[in-house]
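Input:
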Amino acid sequence: MSTPADHIPGPAAQPATRRRWRLRTSQVPYLLISPFVVLFLVFGIFPLVFSFWLAFQSWEPTAGLASMKFVGLDNFRFAITDEWFWKSLRNTAWLALASGVPQHVIAIPLAYFIHTGFKRSRNAVIGAYFLPYITSTVAIAMMFGTLFSTDYGLINLSLHALAQVPGLGWFFPDAPVDWLNRAENVKPAVAIVVFWRYIGFNTVLYLAALQTIPSDIYEAATMDGARRVQQFFYITLPSLKPMIYFGVTLSVVGGLQLFEEPFILTGGRGGTDQAGMTTAMYMYRTAFEFNDFGGASALSWLLFVFVALLTWLTNRAFRPRGNAS
Amino acid sequence: MKPLTRTAVIAAAAMLTLATAQAQQSITIAAFPAVDDIAKAAIPIWKKTHPTVEVKVVSRAFADHHTAMTTALSTSSNLPDVMVVEYGYVARFAEGGGLENLGAAPYNLQAQQAHFVPYAYRQGTSNAGAVVAAPADIGPGTLLYRTDLLKTAAVTEADLTQSWESFVGAGVKIKAATGAYLVAHARDIKDIVIRSDIKAGEGLYIDNKGKVLVDSPRFLRAFQLAKKVRDQKLDGKINAWSNEWSEGFKRGTIATQLSGAWLAGHLSNWLAPATKGLWRAAQLPEKAYASWGGTFYTIPKGAKNKTLAWEFIELMTLNPAMQLQAFKAQDAFPALVDVHNDAFFDQPIEFLGGQKARLLWRETAKKINPIEVHKLDPIADEIVNTELDKVLDQGKDIPTALADAKRLLERRVNR
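Output:
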């Protein structure tokens, strides 16, 4: 029979039992960030490493992982000499420029206009411009697919109605525009959708930057007799340069990875003569339609090289002068 | 415990364990729309013979389903017990060797070959001779046309079907009289003509020796006919399954559609139900017997319940009642010839103005020749379609376009 004293651990046993479950203070941060690290390793790093590995393999995916064969640089050699890869890159560059440049050229004055022209209703106006950005891309692309319909679309019906207006007829086409079925129209149609979707996002970026410009600079300029336009070009625009750099970098990276809008608008094929097939789409199709995962991985790494190169060029073009870093 | 009591207790425990094990059994069927409904409708019949085996039908959109199955086969994980595969993916999945050979023991589907439409059975057989897929339904090709538009243009069914040239000629009259397009897309004509007159040993794009065939006379003729249709503005440049496609059917701006027999069901159910009675079905021009798709049941090698999976496949593909049920409910034309003499085939189809079109499609099914499939067929299809786009939209010379298509495809073949 034991006495109560038998159950009281001795001074030596007590710390030993507790030590097993106690973390050192220095270890706590690692534990707290471990969920992110684990998820990042699984969903971020592993796919990257696997994709790099795949780029050097020939793989019939339906035969399982064991069927991979090392082919060295063959996939890269094939991709570099592939007409469709270069065509997809040209399409991507065209779309990135046609949808990206107007986003910034229009978003900056638009943000300035909203910043200076609206007081009470400003948030509502910003919300309206921002709405397309937070709307499902699939819904947007499907809606525009209907709007762009050659025979029944609202855009062609409106153009036709405008063409009937006396004096305006010469400016608008009377015959329906084949938006998504003619190679020369597919890219502008996709660019319009991308521009419409991201203009609001860039406007919000520039509005945020405008709010950081001290108002006394404008007051001083007004005292010196500077007009609104002069204030825009000599105060606003130079002050926005860091944000322009940020916004353009996002547009370059996003533009080169463009996928959803052209994919849905062109029925997944890129439209007639693959006129709207971006490199990201071609990568997807190479893997999942043409069953060439090795080739698709090589394409993805080549695209990465282009994205990195253009991001570096953007950095060179927009980074503040006199700053070596 | 007495020996008798002990034996009874042990027997009861064993039965309970067995019953529990059976109650826990389930099989997974991975399918895409329409086939998922057919599989779900089979569950009550399945339950009569397998009361303790649950059937879980996992349904995904058509493309998502095949992408998910590719991923499952590539990693040998999350594989269903029964994998439904559309015809276009059979060769691709067979190539990887990840599917059971249903022709061999213990399945022995080969012994049941005579029960299937010959071309469908051949479609489920890999080039190496393994029967990797059991056919469930087929899509015999047909020409659906609008009688009202033909009447206005004084065009007869014979004008449409006699030859491809007379088909195009009829299109000119229809366009002039009604303004309707002859076909939704000129590509549709190309797709049929390249599938006609394929010789033994030839595939669609590549023969069994790896020779690329895209500059052969059938491709030349297909491109010429498509160009003729486009030049005369007889096609609406409308892709299948687009909004414009269904609008075209609803508004009567598309006079004919070359397709699988199943399209009549889609038109009747949701594409253009208001056009009931205005459509008729005919054989394809120049008696070009062709097939549009088809559904197959397969068992992945990594499946866990292969015996039960096979029993489910037997139910779906070899059971006459199930085949007829799917035909009646989903217009899934039976691959099982045993039911082809059922009275249902003689019944008039109201949507087609009372025409007994199933008899026509049954004849087509008998005459379709199987086409050898190649794993590069999807990319060959894309190459040919892209060159056709250049011919139709940019005026590219046809021989040059076909030579370019051949060069691009040979590059892939020789890789």
